[in-house]
Amino acid sequence: MKKKIQEINERIKKGKACVLRADEVVEMGKKEGIKEVLKKVDVVTTGTFGMMCSSGAFINTGHFEPPTKLEDVSLNNVKAYGGIAAVDIYIGATERANGRKDYGGAHVIEDLVKGKKVRLKAKADPTDCYPGKEVDVYISLKNVNQAFLFNPRNCYQNYSAATNSTNELLYTYMGLLLPNFGNVAFATSGELSPLFKDPHLCTIGVGTQIFLAGARGYVVWEGTQFNSKAKRDEKTGIPESPAGTLALTGNLKEMNAEFLKAAYIKGYGISLFVGIGIPIPVIDEEMAFYVSIPNEMIKTKIIDYGVKRLKRPVIKEVNYAELFSGWIEIKNKKVKTEPRTSLYKSKRIAEILKRWILKKKFYLTECVKNLPVEGVFKPWREI
Fold first, then answer.
1. Residues 24 and 102 in one domain
2. Which of 4, 90, 99, 279 suits 204 as a labelling partner, its CA being 20 to 30 A distant?
3. DSSP letters of 100-167?
4. pLDDT tens per residue, range 219-255
5. Which residues are catalytic?
6. H/E element holding 38?
7. In this structure, what are the phi and psi dihedrals at residue 42, rounded to the nearest 5 degrees?
8. Which residues are 335's β-sheet partners?
């Protein structure tokens, strides 16, 4: 039995589609089996809400009087990039404000989504066509032409968990890691996570429509550091270490600050929590199997951040049921586990996307280009 996306969309249009959240279909798979999942379910909705540092926004302010080419640009004292065109700028989520550690690009983006005004300051070398020398104004999403998220690397497929073997506190982008294996931090929503439900990216590619921070968004390319060479579990096909990533875009003017939250991580810097949900069409028995994979069957590695080199040692392999239980064992010691991804928000995203589909406000899209099967992530090396 096989289904086509067009057929599923027709069922959505007629109000006959069966749409379940990823956690709901996992329970159904356990009780009724994979064949029943294929027979009964059309779409599975996923969700994740976690730190995604590789994020940012393009903004077109509109031209000023006199015409000015924005070059040395800041937004609320956060440096933005103006080397694109006259009034196009890009602000990165992790850029810190001048003189502050706890405010940065992510906060500027969140402020804009909340409807706040943001101070734009810029200096420029005047030219005959752009004679203006500086700009000092307040902008908001109401008075700029365009503002859209463009995130180079989101939605990591199975990010490794982190722990610390040393006698010292470690301040990392995974949060505070306590000495002597005092805790384990992990950053994936487990069986709700989008790229676990389609591990080979059969239905996710360039052009796929998604939930992005409360609005419609799209997959625009492979994400940076996309790695197709990661070892996969023989039973599930799911990578056991960081693998696929997605480059995403969406209209900032339509987004909701509930799903776009700036964060300051002590000892590391600024990051942005981004809410993402991807609908997975259940097109065949293989996909029915993938969407039904529970936390107990999804494995990841715990990495020792106490080792200060690029290739850190693996302390242990665990599954997400163990991580979400709150405790695991390392070297005969009971260790607390701490999610850096909000399971509550992840499930809420999957539920909202489910309702959009059931209310015929969101349809599935076929990707126009598959993501690469040969993408490799490797360290820098001199040519």
1. no
2. 90
3. -SS-BHHHHHHHHHTT--EEEEEE----SS----EEEEEE-TTTSSEEEEEEEEES-SSPPEEE--SS
4. 999 999 999 888 999 999 999 989 999 999 999 999 9
5. 129
6. helix 34-40
7. -100, -40
8. 328
